[in-house]
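FAQ

Q: What does a record look like?
A: Structure on top, sequence underneath. For example:
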């Protein structure tokens, strides 16, 4: 999960490729609904406020303790009504939301329209410094509650109005026909009065309206969640709870799984991929996910942004043997990327196989020629920066460099530039200190083509770490956002993607699958399109 700017247009495509998992995960019985399972986890970066969590580990918990107006189907990714009874609009700009009756928070408080409006106003307020504030950016009045400069002049969004206990209205600053499809994102979750009345106590032990409640949390050790017996939703927990155990090394988690000390590892380390099928058999899952890995460039460095460098960047892309790397390093658990989105979107949703064209095809001769025509590598060498504390990045960075070096007949043309921790890595990116290409990845916030393009490559977008900018790309994204016809909007976004390709604003490497392994205590285990375990459906025993 990453933060992403809103779009005026979005398309929520069912991911047909996700209709079944690759291995295992079948339902083998009713299980013990009171039994607790253990799963690997990492401490969240921020407090578990819905509008302040934009990374994967915190997102896993929010998905367990909250339910929003919409919920993304765990197999297809399609946005379906959860707390929303209906969302009506006649003009794609003014929406009337009616919530279902009978929903409460786990503390007994009733979920009302005000629960949503208060939560969204809190998230949009500049003074609350919520990382996902921009998800409310297209609601009228956001410029007053969260101005780009200066202090806020309003505490609430003028576009939100409570009508009665079960109804509220939303007015956007422009048409956004599929705004309702974004409302499964955790930032839009409702909040109880306890959140506002004693914020510190709530943060210490969050209270939500999902199938689980937080029982306890010891930072650096474990978060214990337990099934909420009074949960009113249709997707009740099929187990007694989940103990999320903190690991700083997923190899250790895998060792614990094999030793019987852990039930579920939701990120099988690259070093174990060659063994995992023999180790676990059909208890290993490899499921397509909305994740792409790329190499970004520091466009704030003139050496990488001068005329002709698009040839050098394209040449580097052509020097990478994706097929060989995904087969040898990732044991075919990654798929070579041929566009900048993800196959889980499906063709109708904007995924277009081969859009990258020969710019993503390995060709050593063409690569060398392009780099020479573009003026050569800046400083004569490429340094690929990555963090070493998570993700087994060293192996694939070394493989990419070997591929580039072989293509250029120069064993010093490419080297890895390791950074010890993810925090330091991110700080150097934020401080614009990247000496060359750096590893980047994107896990979709919701299954929309816009979510793979605008947040990453639009000028000054929230996750445009390389600071690439292109007026033609921006204009095409703006035009796509203004469209209410899905097919036309997809075409516009793909035209923008072609501009990204022609300038090689980032090098697409491979699509990532969700990878998990589990103990023989569990059944009905699967990963959703976001590569997160569907915890509430897991059965124990």
């Amino acid at each position: 999960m990453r933060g992403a700017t809103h779009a005026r247009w979005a398309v929520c495509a069912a991911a047909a490729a996700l209709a079944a998992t690759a291995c295992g995960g079948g339902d083998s019985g009713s299980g013990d609904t009171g039994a607790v399972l253990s799963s690997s986890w990492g401490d969240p970066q921020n407090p578990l406020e819905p509008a302040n969590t934009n990374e994967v580990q915190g997102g896993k918990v929010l998905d367990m303790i909250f339910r929003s107006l919409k919920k993304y189907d765990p197999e297809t990714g399609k946005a379906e009504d959860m707390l929303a009874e209906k969302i009506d609009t006649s003009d794609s700009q003014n929406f009337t939301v009616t919530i279902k009756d009978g929903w409460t928070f786990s503390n007994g408080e009733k979920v009302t329209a005000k629960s949503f409006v208060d939560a969204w106003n809190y998230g949009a307020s500049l003074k609350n410094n919520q990382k996902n504030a921009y998800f409310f950016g297209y609601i009228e009045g956001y410029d007053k509650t969260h101005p780009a400069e200066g202090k806020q002049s309003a505490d609430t969004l003028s576009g939100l109005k409570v009508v009665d206990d079960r109804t509220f209205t939303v007015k956007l600053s422009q048409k956004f026909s599929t705004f309702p499809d974004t409302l499964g994102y955790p930032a839009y979750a409702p909040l109880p009065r306890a959140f506002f009345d004693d914020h510190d106590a709530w943060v210490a032990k969050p209270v939500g309206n999902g199938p689980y409640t937080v029982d306890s949390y010891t930072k650096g050790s474990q978060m214990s969640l337990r099934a909420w017996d009074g949960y009113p939703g249709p997707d009740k927990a099929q187990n007694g709870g989940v103990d999320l155990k903190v690991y700083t090394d997923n190899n250790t988690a895998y060792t614990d799984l094999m030793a019987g000390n852990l039930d579920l590892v939701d990120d099988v380390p690259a070093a174990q991929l060659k063994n995992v099928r023999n180790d676990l058999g059909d208890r290993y899952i490899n499921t397509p996910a909305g994740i792409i890995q790329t190499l970004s460039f520091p466009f704030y460095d003139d050496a990488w942004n001068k005329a002709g460098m698009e040839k050098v960047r394209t040449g580097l892309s052509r020097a990478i043997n994706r097929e060989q790397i995904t087969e040898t390093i990732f044991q075919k658990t990654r798929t070579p990327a041929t566009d900048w989105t993800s196959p889980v979107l499906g063709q109708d949703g904007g995924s277009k196989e081969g859009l990258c064209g020969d710019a993503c095809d390995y060709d050593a001769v063409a690569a060398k020629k392009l780099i020479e025509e573009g003026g050569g590598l800046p400083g004569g060498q490429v340094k690929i920066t990555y963090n070493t504390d998570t993700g087994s990045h060293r192996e694939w960075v070394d493989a990419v460099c070997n591929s580039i070096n072989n293509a250029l007949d120069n064993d010093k043309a490419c080297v890895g530039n390791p950074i010890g921790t993810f925090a330091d890595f991110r700080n150097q990116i934020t401080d614009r200190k990247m000496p060359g290409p750096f590893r980047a990845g994107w896990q979709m916030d919701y299954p929309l083509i816009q979510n793979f393009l605008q947040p990453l490559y639009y000028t000054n977008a929230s996750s445009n770490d390389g600071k690439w900018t292109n007026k033609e790309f921006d204009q095409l994204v703006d035009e796509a956002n203004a469209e209410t016809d899905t097919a036309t909007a997809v075409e516009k976004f793909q035209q923008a993607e072609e501009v990204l390709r022609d300038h090689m604003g980032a090098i697409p490497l491979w699509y990532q699958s969700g990878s998990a392994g589990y103990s023989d205590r569990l059944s009905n285990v699967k990963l959703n399109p976001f590569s997160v375990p569907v915890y509430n459906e897991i059965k124990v025993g």
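Q: Is there anything notable about this one?
A: The longest strand covers residues 284-296.
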